[in-house]
Design goal:
Elements (H helix, E strand, L loop, with lengths): L1 E4 L2 E4 L3 H12 L4 E4 L7 H5 L8 E2 L3 H6 L9 H6 L2 H10 L4 E2 L5 E4 L4 H14 L3 E3 L4 E7 L2 E7 L2 E4 L2 E4 L14 H8 L8 E3 L3 E3 L11 E9 L8 E8 L3 E3 L1 H17 L2 E6 L6 H14 L5 H5 L5 H10 L13 H12 L1 E8 L7 E3 L20 E3 L13 H16 L1
Parallel strand pairs: 1-10, 2-3, 2-11, 3-7, 11-20
Antiparallel strand pairs: 4-6, 5-6, 8-9, 9-10, 12-19, 13-16, 13-18, 14-15, 14-17, 15-16, 17-18
Length: about 400
C-alpha cells in the first residue's frame, strides 16, 4: 500500500461533498475528494429530472419548519450559507440563476450539467485532488481522533474526514449506504432508514382508470389515530397501480414509516379543491339548476376530472348516468361524503430504487450543528443526506446539502 497525506478527505461528490472540498481548499487546506463512481456528481446530475431545483426563497424559519422536528438543527448552517449565499457562490463560479415562479431557484439553463461542470472546474481551480473509481472501505481513527481512510489499494492519511455519501435512494447512481456503515463503525447511531419522495402503490384498482388525469391542490391526510395532524396539499397524479405527483412525493416521507409498521396505510383525499360536504351539495344544486338535463358526472366536471368522478360514483354504487337528485338519499349522502374524503389505501412503494431521498440517517444528537463535526470522533464531519434530516420537494434538500457542506468546509 502507498501512503498519501492530506489535511481533509471528502468522501462523496454530491453537492455536499463538492462544496465542502471547495470551501476547505479555499481555506488553504490540502484536499482529497474520493468518489466511488467513474465520474463526479451522478445523483446531482439527475436532480429534479435534470433541471436542478437548487433551493427556494422561503425565509429561514419557514424553511427549517418544512423539515419537521429536526429542522432547527440547520440554524447555524443556514445563517452562514442560505439561498442568497448559494446564489452568490454560484455566480462566483460562473453559474447564473433565476427564480421563474418567484419561489424555486434554478440555473438559467435549467440543466444540472451546468452546476456540475462549474463545481468540477472550481475543484480543479482550487487544486482539490480528485480520485474517481475509488471506493472507501473504512475510516481510520486512533484515540477518538480521525487519522485517514482506506480504499481497496491505498491508505490516505488526514486528520479530517467529511462523510458526504448521501442516502440509499437511486442505487444505480452510486447510493449504497456506505456512509451509515462508516458512522456505525466509529460508534455513531443510525436511525431506521425509509425510502422517501417516491410513488406509492394502492390497494384500490380504480386508480388505473384515472391515470391520464392530474388533480390540482389535492389534500391528503393519513387516517390513523397517531397521524391525524399529518396532511399535505399539492398536485396528485393517478397511475396504473397507485399515485404519484408532487403531493405524493412530499407526503411519502410521512407514510413509509407507518407502512413499515402496519403493512398498509389508509388515506383520506379531498380531490375537489378543498370543498366540504356543504360546499359539494351547494355546487351540485347550482349545476343542476344551470344544466337540468346533465348527469352527476357532468355536474362534477368543473371540480373533478370526469374519469375520477365516474370512479367515485361507482365506488359509492351511484349510477354516474343519473342526475344527482334522482339518486337515492342514502346514495347521495355517501357520494358527497366520499367526494369530500375519498378513501385510498397505500399498500406499498417502489423502494429505494426510485426514492429521491432517504428518511433517517446518522442521529443529529451526536453531531455538532455549529460545525457538522462528530461529537464522538474529532475530525469526523457529516454533510447532507447521510444525516437524519430530510425535507420536501422544492430545493429544500439540495440547499441543505450545500449549506451543511459549506459549513463543514469553512470550519475545517
Amino acid at each position: 500500500m502507498t501512503m498519501n497525506t492530506y489535511d481533509v478527505i471528502t468522501i462523496g461528490s454530491g453537492a455536499a461533498g463538492m462544496i465542502a472540498a471547495i470551501t476547505a481548499a479555499r481555506e488553504n487546506k490540502k484536499v482529497l475528494l474520493l468518489e466511488q463512481l467513474p465520474t463526479l456528481g451522478a445523483k446531482l446530475k439527475a436532480t429534479g429530472g435534470g433541471r436542478c431545483n437548487l433551493s427556494n426563497t422561503l425565509k429561514k424559519p419557514e424553511f427549517m419548519n418544512s423539515f419537521g422536528r429536526n429542522g432547527r438543527f440547520m440554524t447555524e448552517a443556514l445563517n452562514l450559507f442560505d439561498h442568497q449565499a448559494l446564489i452568490k457562490f454560484l455566480d462566483e463560479i460562473g453559474v447564473q440563476t433565476h427564480i421563474p415562479d418567484g419561489f424555486r431557484i434554478f440555473p438559467i439553463t435549467h440543466s444540472s450539467s451546468t452546476i456540475l461542470k462549474a463545481l468540477e472546474q472550481e475543484l480543479i481551480k482550487q487544486n482539490v485532488q480528485i480520485q474517481c473509481s475509488s471506493k472507501v472501505e473504512s475510516i481510520l481513527f486512533e484515540n477518538d481522533n480521525i487519522t485517514g481512510v482506506t480504499t481497496s489499494d491505498k491508505t490516505y492519511s488526514a486528520p479530517n474526514v467529511v462523510v458526504a455519501t448521501g442516502g440509499l435512494g437511486y442505487p444505480m447512481l452510486g447510493a449504497n449506504g456506505d456512509g451509515y456503515g462508516f458512522a456505525s463503525s466509529v460508534g455513531h447511531k443510525v436511525t431506521q432508514l425509509y425510502p422517501a419522495m417516491l410513488p406509492l402503490l394502492t390497494k384500490q384498482t380504480w386508480v388505473a382508470s384515472c391515470k391520464a388525469d392530474t388533480i390540482a391542490k389535492a389534500q391528503l391526510r393519513i387516517d390513523l389515530p397517531k397521524a391525524k395532524k399529518l396532511k399535505a396539499i399539492g398536485d396528485l397524479i393517478f397511475t396504473s397501480n397507485g399515485i404519484r405527483g408532487p403531493v405524493v412525493l412530499d407526503f411519502a416521507r410521512e407514510i413509509t414509516p407507518f407502512l413499515d409498521k402496519y403493512g398498509e396505510v389508509p388515506l383520506l383525499m379531498n380531490l375537489v379543491k378543498g370543498m366540504n360536504e356543504e360546499d359539494i351539495y351547494a355546487h351540485l344544486k347550482k349545476e343542476n339548476t344551470l344544466n337540468p338535463h346533465g348527469n352527476v358526472v357532468e355536474h362534477l366536471s368543473s371540480i373533478l376530472p370526469s374519469s375520477v368522478a365516474t370512479q367515485i360514483c361507482l365506488e359509492c354504487d351511484a349510477n354516474p348516468e343519473f342526475k344527482f337528485n334522482k339518486l337515492e338519499g342514502v346514495t347521495r349522502t355517501k357520494l358527497v361524503k366520499t367526494l369530500s374524503a375519498t378513501p385510498l389505501t397505500v399498500t406499498g412503494h417502489v423502494g429505494f430504487k426510485k426514492a429521491m431521498i432517504t428518511r433517517g440517517g446518522v442521529t443529529l444528537k451526536e453531531i455538532n450543528p455549529k460545525t457538522m463535526q462528530s461529537k464522538l470522533i474529532k475530525g469526523l464531519y457529516f454533510c447532507g443526506e447521510v444525516m437524519d434530516l430530510d425535507g420536501p420537494c422544492g430545493g429544500y434538500n439540495l440547499q441543505w446539502s450545500f449549506s451543511s457542506g459549506f459549513l463543514a468546509g469553512h470550519l475545517l
